[in-house]
Amino acid sequence: MELKELKIGNLTARIPIVQGGMGIGVSLSNLAAAVANEGGIGTISGVQIGFREPDFDTNTVEANLRAIAKEIKKAREKTKGIIAMNFMAAMNNYELYVKKAVEEKIDLIVSGAGLPLALPKLVKDSATKIAPIVSSAKAAKIIIKSWLKHDRLPDAVVVEGPLAGGHLGFKMDEMLEGTYKSLKEIVTEVKEIISSYEEQYSVKIPVIAAGGIRTKSDIMELAEAGADGFQISSMFVPTVECDAHENFKQAYINAQKDDVMIIKSPVGMPARAIRTKFLTDSMENGCIVTKCFKCMPECNPLDIPYCISRGLIDAVNGSDGLVFSGANLESINKITTVKEVIDSLIN
Fold first, then answer.
1. What is the pLDDT of residue 172?
2. pLDDT over 80 (residue 42)
3. Distance of CA 273 to the CA centre of its chain
4. Do 106 and 167 fall into the same domain?
5. Other CB atoms closer than 10 Å to residue 160's CB: what's the count?
6. For the residues of 19-41, what is the DSSP string, one character each?
7. Taking a C-beta distance cutoff of 8 angstroms, is the pair 326, 212 a contact?
8. How far is Cα 342 from Cα 15, in angstroms, rounded to an integer?
9. What pTM was estimated for this model as a whole?
10. 29-37 and 60-78 helices cross at what angle (nearest 10)?
């Protein structure tokens, strides 16, 4: 089977590779532009993107809005390719941040970690394309039915399986007991749902498979199941172009199979992360949260084992912190380049 270009509305990626959004600050303009320059779709993470702004601690929302504009501009200066932004639907000020990205004429918004039911109204009258992240056919159907009330269909759907990194759209017991469906099974089920809408509305809605994809054979298997594109995240971390600190990249390279674990995130969702001293100490003893960034609704600093924003920021800056990752890191064992990663998956 020959891999085809990926068309999302009037956007055409020469190769069907989408670089997943990784926050905080792991995938910013540098990584996104590098992937776009190779013919794929590069993604800037919009989660607490202003963490390097001088007033982030005291003026978090304004710092994030400023950084959204800065990172999109920097990406545009480095590439003429397709640039997306990823936003967590469950985070505070979601609508404000999405609107800012649309104002800056971002090509595509990818959104998960909750049901992004508000997206159609946020991009109305703009050229920005929208793609929800789902982990089941049921979620896909709920989102599409809601979006149709706004006379909008998804421009693409990202199907994220159980081997993905960061927050996961599965129940904790499913993850711990391994009772989840495989990515291939979920892609097949979502493709069936999507096909019915494609036929009814005479449109093409590409399905993008995500989570634990490591080889060309993984891609070909998912293509046979109906996937049109393939979202890759963890493989792009230990690259020269990745925006994270070298220590963060080394955490991926040094991780053994037993180091990658399922945790309960402070936001209440299961997540996959690399075992670090910070994570182990926090889970065993907790820690005092001295600053709340109000990134998530209903997050009480007195009840959580650690501040997720602070843990992620410390890690991406090279200190001991929270390092999210996908499964199957054993094959990721050296610093490489975006081009080499893509060549290994496509050629």
1. 87
2. yes
3. 14
4. yes
5. 28
6. EPP-TTTTSSHHHHHHHHHTTSE
7. yes
8. 9
9. 0.95
10. 30
Say what angle helices 183-201 and 216-224 make with each other, to 10 degrees: 50
Residue 72 lies in a domain: yes
The 10s digit of each residue's pLDDT in 276-306 is: 999 999 877 777 677 777 777 777 776 778 8
The single residue listed with the structure tokens 């068309």 is 7
Q: Which domain holds residue 265?
A: 247-324
275 and 183: one domain? no
What is the pLDDT, as a whole number, of residue 174? 87
User: Quick one: which of 249, 226, 246 has its CA closest to 237?
Assistant: 249
Pair 264, 341 in one domain: no
Q: Quick one: tokens of 81?
A: 């390719």
Residue-level pLDDT at 177: 87
Among 44, 87, 136, 112, CA closest to 295 = 87
Among 335, 238, 290, CA closest to 31: 238
Do 165 and 175 contact (CB within 8 A), yes or no? no
CB distance 229 to 342 below 8 Å: no
How many domains does the chain contain in total? 2
Could you tell me the CA-to-CA distances from 21 to 240, 287, 288, 316 in Å, in that order?
A: 17, 28, 29, 14
